[in-house]
Design brief:
Radius of gyration: 21 Å
CATH class of the largest domain: Mainly Alpha
Number of strands: 3
Largest sheet: 3 strands, antiparallel
Number of domains: 2
Helix content: 55-70%
Shape: globular
Strand order of the largest sheet: 1-2-3
Number of helices: 16
Oligomer: single chain
CATH architecture of the largest domain: Orthogonal Bundle
Structural class: mainly alpha
Strand content: under 5%
CATH topology of the largest domain: Citrate Synthase, domain 1
């Protein structure tokens, strides 16, 4: 029996897939990852634990975690040909476009690219996760006329990632906070980029193609690019009062304030933002400078009172990255790199139980005879 066709702008509220990977449970106010609460995981586990959970369906033992760290480390190095291609890009190229290009070129080095078995797909995901930090950082460095930096195998996955970005070995707190941000960005059910990856994968395209499409999706400031926009907005003000004035002016002009609101979290703060807010507080305490935290809290209050909107993860991740010494143009590429774990899990799941996405339209064009 044919069901009534309905139109929902932006597919709002439409169930597009069945998944065992994650769920945003608004009733329980939880982000569920493979049966675990992501916020609870962020208090006890590290990013590599979540990688194992997403790809192996369970949290790792200590031995399994160590083995995974070693597996990722063996895949840190990127083929020189990828770097050669990145050197040919125009200087004005956006870092996300550099990342997208590097990821696309990497596909040519996969001799088993057309194989879709579960074992091959998982190994491909681990190889990608190993190489993404180097591609992310070095595509940015090359575009800015800097020499590529090599990974440090004596550091943890997240510690090495942050080292490659800043050129300095991070403190224990800095590495922990950066790792926590990667964990919180790792998976979030069915945002635009994940849907894009699954749509591409549903044609039986390869993982590289699906992930390359996700890069293009995540580049937009209504998705991943919001964290960059937040930091540029914060930099426009030099004090709490100036930031409050800036927001009031933007609101009067009916400008969109980045870092607030979420399609799912409508009536309260994104729970991931609360974790990053506390991380910002920790960094401010160490540096003895609470200005960014105070500005963010002032903005949070204004947006709740004026618009009934609450911060999402990007709002507090942006100042955290700034205090970690991360260049603003790298914020979105880092978001993407961390989300690769979830994206790979979704691509694998789509390939394992596939149905081609082929929606219909509601035609509102000229009448026809």
């Amino acid at each position: 029996m044919k069901t009534k066709e309905t139109y929902a702008p932006g597919l709002d509220g439409i169930i597009a897939a069945e998944t065992e990977i994650s769920l945003l449970n608004t009733e329980l106010e939880k982000i569920i990852i493979k049966g675990h609460d992501l916020i609870e995981l962020s208090q006890e586990k590290e990013y590599v634990d979540i990688v194992h959970l997403l790809l192996e369906d369970e949290l790792p033992s200590a031995a399994e975690k160590q083995a995974l760290e070693e597996k990722l480390q063996t895949n840190y190095e990127v083929p020189s040909g990828v770097m050669d291609v990145l050197k040919l890009l125009p200087e004005r190229t956006h870092p996300m476009d550099g990342l997208r290009t590097g990821l696309s070129v990497l596909a040519g080095y996969d001799e088993a690219i057309d194989e879709r078995s579960l074992e091959v797909s998982k190994n491909r995901a681990y190889k990608l996760l190993g190489k993404l930090p180097a591609i992310t950082v070095n595509s940015y460095r090359i575009l800015n006329g800097q020499k590529p930096v090599h990974p440090q195998g004596n550091l943890s996955y997240s510690g090495n990632f942050l080292y490659m970005i800043t050129g300095e070995q991070p403190t224990e707190l800095e590495a922990k906070i950066f790792d926590r941000s990667l964990l919180l960005y790792s998976e979030h059910e069915m945002p635009n980029s994940t849907f894009t990856a699954r749509v591409i994968a549903s044609t039986h395209s390869d993982m590289y193609g699906a992930l390359t499409g996700a890069v293009a999706s995540l580049k937009g400031n209504l998705h991943g690019g919001a964290n960059e926009a937040v930091m540029y907005m914060l930099k426009e003000a030099a004090s709490v009062s100036e930031f409050e004035e800036l927001l009031e002016k933007k609101l009067k002009k009916k400008e969109k304030i980045m870092g607030f609101g979420h399609r799912v979290y409508m009536k309260k703060m994104d729970p991931r933002a609360l974790i990053m807010k506390e991380s910002l507080r920790q960094l401010c305490e160490v540096k003895g400078d609470y200005s960014l935290l105070e500005m963010c809290e002032a903005g949070e209050k204004i947006m709740e009172e004026e618009k009934g909107l609450y911060p999402n993860l990007d709002y507090y991740a942006a100042p955290v990255y700034w205090m970690l010494g991360i260049p603003i143009p790298l914020y979105t590429p880092i978001f993407y790199s961390s989300r690769t774990a979830g994206l790979c899990a979704h691509v694998i799941e789509q390939h394992e139980n596939n149905r081609l996405f082929r929606p219909r339209v509601n035609y509102i064009g000229k009448k026809y005879e």
